[in-house]
UniProtKB/TrEMBL annotation:
Domain of life the protein comes from: Eukaryota
One GO process term, biological-process aspect: cellular response to tumor necrosis factor
GO cellular component: membrane
Gene that specifies this protein: OCSTAMP
Taxonomy of the source species: Eukaryota, Metazoa, Chordata, Craniata, Vertebrata
Annotated transmembrane regions: 57-79, 85-109, 130-148, 242-259, 310-333, 404-422
Keywords: Membrane, Transmembrane, Transmembrane helix
Listed PANTHER family: DENDRITIC CELL-SPECIFIC TRANSMEMBRANE PROTEIN, OSTEOCLAST STIMULATORY TRANSMEMBRANE PROTEIN
Protein name in the entry: Osteoclast stimulatory transmembrane protein
Domain Dendritic cell-specific transmembrane protein-like span(s) in chain numbering: 268-450
């Protein structure tokens, strides 16, 4: 008996790890099944037309409250950060939206269904429009001001060079004046007969008026660019607000339109082999109908895409590539303008003075009996330096492109491209949500599709 016990104990020691693995697997399965049961129960409460008791009523109110708090916070952040509304307007609109949404979700069953359908609809065309609107807003708000600011920096460099060079050039007229006065005295010392008592006339232009004109032209260009920048920002903000409002309204309209067609039209989006259709065909002994019609029907849980769905995705990808190309042009233009402005600022700091030399050669002589006798040779050089830059001309460095903006825009476009291929599955999810909210209508749709398949099968046999 003791040996058996030891053997049993030994066997138990050997089998203990296997028992532990089975226990862990059992715990995982029970945990997953428990979570799945809780989620199914909560979804059943959420999709019921009327709660069965007070417990379901409070559970429904808690679900609707959590949804409205989450969406209210996201709506506030969207209004404040993306659409750039004032904070008090954003708070008022977010609170109003949350209260109305809470009442609608808690009291109206079809509104809950339409709202639930709107969530996967974000993965369809309207969701792409919202994401594309966000991308355009990010590009315009972050890239356009950089481009305009760097263009202003480039123009300021040109203005500074023009102003300094014009001042230096106009100041160099003093050199010409002094040179001509010295030449006049030299000539008067060697003239024997003076036909007229005069001077070499040389007039200096007052350079203050020209400098003021250059300065006023630069200020006018700066103000014009500032006005254009403000106008572009205002137009983009207004346009983005209109696009965002239209996209949200159209998103709601599309979900309501889908629910209305689902409830009123038995043919609408009724091409799926559902569990109810499969059970109905099995009960009537006509499972072969589903096998024969498989190429024309879609399994909701399958990953197969029809040829039409695939071609539609590719066409949408081509249209989206046009918007992506425009965004890439804006990004390339930002980098190009920054590169030019940066080179201009660095080259301006490296500009050295340009030496200018004025050489005067004059030969005086007497012509006696057609024989020239030289009297005086004048050969003098006068030096001056022209400057193109000045320490008084302060130029702010150009604004470099923000790499985080490019990263965010790239991620958003990746999501947009992914939603094109997920749109088919999002529509299948819409049908499944509508079926869970209106089970009796789903039974009618299953009977209608079964009758349609039966008629087609009989017509095929007769022909």
């Amino acid at each position: 008996m003791s040996q058996l016990l030891r053997r049993d104990a030994g066997s138990c020691l050997v089998l203990r790890p296997a028992c532990g693995v089975r226990d862990n697997a059992y715990c995982e399965d029970s945990l997953f099944s428990k979570v799945h049961r809780i989620m199914s129960e909560q979804w059943s409460i959420y999709s019921k037309p009327v709660p069965a008791d007070s417990r379901e009523l409070w559970a429904l109110f808690l679900q609707c409250s959590c949804i409205t708090v989450l969406l209210g916070g996201l709506f506030y952040n969207w209004l404040l950060a993306s659409l750039e509304y004032p904070w008090h307007v954003s708070v008022a609109m977010a609170v109003t939206f949350s209260l109305l949404l809470l009442l609608a979700l808690f009291l109206v069953h079809p509104v809950r269904c339409a709202f639930s359908i709107a969530m996967p609809t974000l993965g369809t065309k309207q969701g792409r429009k919202l994401l594309l609107s966000t991308c355009i807003m990010i590009v315009v708000v972050n890239i356009t001001p950089n481009i305009i600011s760097n263009i202003k920096t480039l123009l300021k460099v040109i203005l500074c060079i023009s102003k300094n060079s014009s001042e230096s050039l106009l100041n160099s007229t003093d050199l010409l004046g002094n040179t001509f006065w010295k030449l006049e005295h030299e000539l008067q010392n060697y003239l024997i007969w003076k036909p007229m008592d005069g001077h070499i006339q040389f007039s200096l232009v007052k350079n203050s008026s020209l400098i003021n004109q250059v300065h006023l032209a630069g200020e006018k260009a700066r103000k014009d660019f500032l006005a254009v920048e403000v106008l572009v920002k205002d137009c983009v903000r207004a346009g983005n607000k209109l696009v965002a409002a239209f996209s949200v309204l159209y998103l709601c309209f599309e979900s309501i339109w889908y629910l209305k067609n689902y409830l009123t039209n038995l043919c609408f989006d009724n091409v799926y082999i559902t569990k109810k259709l499969r059970r109905l065909a099995e009960d009537k002994g006509a499972s072969h109908l589903l096998v024969g019609s498989a190429p024309r029907l879609i399994r909701p849980t399958g990953l197969r895409l029809s040829r039409e769905e695939l071609m539609l995705c590719l066409a949408q990808a081509l249209r989206l590539s046009v918007a992506l190309l425009l965004v890439l042009v804006m990004v390339a233009l930002e980098h190009l303008v920054f590169g030019v402005a940066d080179v201009a600022v660095r080259r301006m700091a490296q500009l050295s003075t340009v030496p200018v030399t004025l050489s005067i050669k004059y030969q005086a002589g007497i012509d006696f009996l057609k024989i020239p006798f030289p009297v005086r040779d004048i050969n003098r050089s006068y030096h001056r330096a022209l400057t193109f830059s000045s320490a008084s001309c302060s130029i702010s460095p150009p604004v470099p492109p923000n790499p985080s903006v490019l990263l965010v825009v790239g991620l958003l476009f990746c999501i947009i491209y992914a939603t094109m291929f997920l749109e088919t599955y999002a529509r299948r999810l819409c049908r499944k949500i509508a079926a869970s909210f209106f089970e009796s209508r789903e039974d009618e749709r299953a009977h209608y599709l079964y009758g349609k398949l039966s008629r087609q099968h009989r017509e095929t046999q007769c022909s």
